[in-house]
């Protein structure tokens, strides 16, 4: 009987001790959880250039003829990075178009100066008439406007002189009138030829201007094609990757150029903690291999949850890691290392 009483008392004491321990441990556990929730969040990230990079491709040809940069080289906007295989043909086309334009421009200058310029008869050249000897009439060049103006003045003076001469001449009146009339007709003839030459000049100048416009447009097109055969850098930056070398076909791209002055730090945050991420929130960044902490701020919080497969260990199931991308900038951009993919530890402040 005494043993039974002792057993009952021992069980009651054990129950009381358990209840007392639970009442004390419960608040402690809850307090620990709250402290963990208020502790700063630390994650790993890396430097990236998503908004400050350019992947170069080609237009007009998919084969690289010449590469003018190497990895790690600094380039300026407009620098030639590569030359495509169609450049030699495009360059010949430009030189030919320049010669054609210069030819029509010289012709217009000659026309404007009053020099008669013979037009080519393409039909005659095609039929073989260009090789025939020229006639006597065609062998003598026709006078231009300047020469014809001189002839008009000369014929006018001759007409005046003829009139004065006939007034003092002892020839019969009808013969004197005939001489004066012939002189006047000669002057009118020269004047008519001058008017025709001026009208022809106006037509030739209009035709020449049209030719210049056509040749100029052809030259612009040829230069555009040649320019497209030269791949230039669209930004100031550093060549971080070269994917295509001379003689190779362009697949992924020719090269990747990054503006190191516009790098950001990217981190993937678990979706459970996304409520703590606010644009403008303060962070501290420590790059791997350094002890200095750099102040920064959140500049972007993704609006989509990414699901990345996680293989886990042996025998474990494949699960999806759900995260949201967050981008960070340093308050002092000069402190950002000029390197893509540099690992960093990011500490998010308690109250962003």
The portion of residues forming beta strands comes to 15-25%
Strand order of the largest sheet: 1-9-13-11-10-14
**Number of helices in the DSSP assignment:** 6
Q: Whole-number radius of gyration?
A: 46 Å
Quote the average pLDDT: 80
How is the quaternary structure best described? single chain
Share in helix: 40-55%
**Category by helix and strand content:** alpha+beta
State the order of secondary-structure elements, H for helix, E for strand: HEEEEEHHHHHEEEEEEEEE
> What is the number of strand segments?
14
- Low-confidence runs of at least 5 consecutive residues: 19-33, 121-131
Question: Could you give a short account of the major beta sheet?
Answer: 6 strands, antiparallel, barrel
Shape: rod-shaped
Cα-to-Cα separation, first versus last residue? 68 Å
Folded structure, characterized:
With 352 residues, the protein is α+β, with helices and mostly antiparallel strands. Among the domains are: 53-85 and 230-257, RNA polymerase II/Efflux pump adaptor protein, barrel-sandwich hybrid domain (OB fold (Dihydrolipoamide Acetyltransferase, E2P)); 87-119 and 142-228. It is 43% helix and 23% strand. It has six helices and 14 strands. It has helices spanning 2-38, 87-112, 122-127, 136-139, 145-168, 173-228, and strands spanning 41-48, 53-56, 64-67, 74-75, 80-84, 230-232, 237-242, 255-258, 264-270, 282-287, 294-301, 306-310, 319-330, 343-348. A six-stranded antiparallel barrel has the order 1-9-13-11-10-14. Strands 2-8-7-4 form a four-stranded antiparallel sheet, with no helix packed on it. A three-stranded antiparallel sheet has the order 3-5-6. A hairpin with an 8-residue loop joins strand 12 (306-310) and strand 13 (319-330). Helix 2 (87-112) packs antiparallel against helix 6 and helix 5 packs antiparallel against helix 6 (173-228). The longest helix is centred in the middle third of the chain and has 56 residues, at 173-228. It is rod-shaped. The chain starts with a helix and ends with a strand. Mean pLDDT is 80; it is low at 19-33 and 121-131.
């Amino acid at each position: 009987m005494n043993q039974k009483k002792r057993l009952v008392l021992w069980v009651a004491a054990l129950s009381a001790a358990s209840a007392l321990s639970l009442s004390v441990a419960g608040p402690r556990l809850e307090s620990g959880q709250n402290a963990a929730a208020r502790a700063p969040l630390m994650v790993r990230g890396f430097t990236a250039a998503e908004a400050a990079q350019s992947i170069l491709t080609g237009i007009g040809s998919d084969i690289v003829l010449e590469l003018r940069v190497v990895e790690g080289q600094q380039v300026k906007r407009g620098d030639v990075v590569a030359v495509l295989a169609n450049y030699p043909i495009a360059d010949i086309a430009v030189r030919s178009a320049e010669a054609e334009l210069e030819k029509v421009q010289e012709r217009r200058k000659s026309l404007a100066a009053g020099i008669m310029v013979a037009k080519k008869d393409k039909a005659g050249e095609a039929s073989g008439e260009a090789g025939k000897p020229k006639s006597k009439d065609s062998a003598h060049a026709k006078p231009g406007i300047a020469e014809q103006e001189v002839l008009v003045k000369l014929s006018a003076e001759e007409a005046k002189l003829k009139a004065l001469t006939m007034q003092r001449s002892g020839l019969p009146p009808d013969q004197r009138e005939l001489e004066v009339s012939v002189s006047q007709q000669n002057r009118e003839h020269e004047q008519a030829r001058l008017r025709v030459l001026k009208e022809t000049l106006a037509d030739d100048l209009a035709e020449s201007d049209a030719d210049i416009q056509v040749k100029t447009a052809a030259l612009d097109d040829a230069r555009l094609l040649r320019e497209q055969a030269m791949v230039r850098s669209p930004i100031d930056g550093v060549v971080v990757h070269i994917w295509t070398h001379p003689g190779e076909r362009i697949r992924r791209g020719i090269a990747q150029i990054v503006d190191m002055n516009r790098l950001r730090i990217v981190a993937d945050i678990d979706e459970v903690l996304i409520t703590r991420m606010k644009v403008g929130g303060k962070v501290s960044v420590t790059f791997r291999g350094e002890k200095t902490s750099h102040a920064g701020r959140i500049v972007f919080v993704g609006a989509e949850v990414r699901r990345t497969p996680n293989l886990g260990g042996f025998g474990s199931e494949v699960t999806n890691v759900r995260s949201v991308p967050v981008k960070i900038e340093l308050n002092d951009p000069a402190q950002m290392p000029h390197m893509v993919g540099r690992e960093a530890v990011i500490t998010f402040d308690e109250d962003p």
